[in-house]
Amino acid sequence: MHCLQNLKEGGRMALVLPEGFLFRKDTAAVRQFLLSKAKLQLVISLPQGTFLPYIKTSILYFIDAHKPNNQKEYWFYEVKNIGVTLDNKKRKIIGINDLNRRGWKIKFI
């Protein structure tokens, strides 16, 4: 896969994919390939409507690219509220947001 070819050893990547990718039989070979090349650290399941055309999506976050991996567990987060309406207008919803900025910190080196 192109995304892995451009990563340095030990690098990190995030993929935004349709949630069906996680469960469908026809994507099993691609899942196995990804898991053999990098450590899956977490999956974030987003609500349907986060992205157009309203397909339920997930974010897969990988670390330690190109290192041997025999991992059996990873973090899974199901996000129900993204702080905006899930229609095409994306109006802010005050006070309801599972993606609170103070709760998520990523340190980029």
From TrEMBL:
Record SUPFAM superfamilies: S-adenosyl-L-methionine-dependent methyltransferases (SSF53335)
Show where the DNA methylase adenine-specific domain sits: 1-92
Q: What is this protein called?
A: site-specific DNA-methyltransferase (adenine-specific)
Query: Sorted alphabetically, which PANTHER family does this protein's record hold?
Result: SLR6095 PROTEIN, TYPE I RESTRICTION ENZYME MJAVIII METHYLASE SUBUNIT
**EC number of this enzyme:** 2.1.1.72
Give the protein family. Belongs to the N(4)/N(6)-methyltransferase family.
- Enzyme class at the top of the EC tree: transferase
Q: Which GO terms describe its biological process?
A: DNA restriction-modification system; methylation
What are the alphabetically sorted keywords of the record? Methyltransferase, Restriction system, S-adenosyl-L-methionine, Transferase
Q: Does the keyword Methyltransferase apply?
A: yes
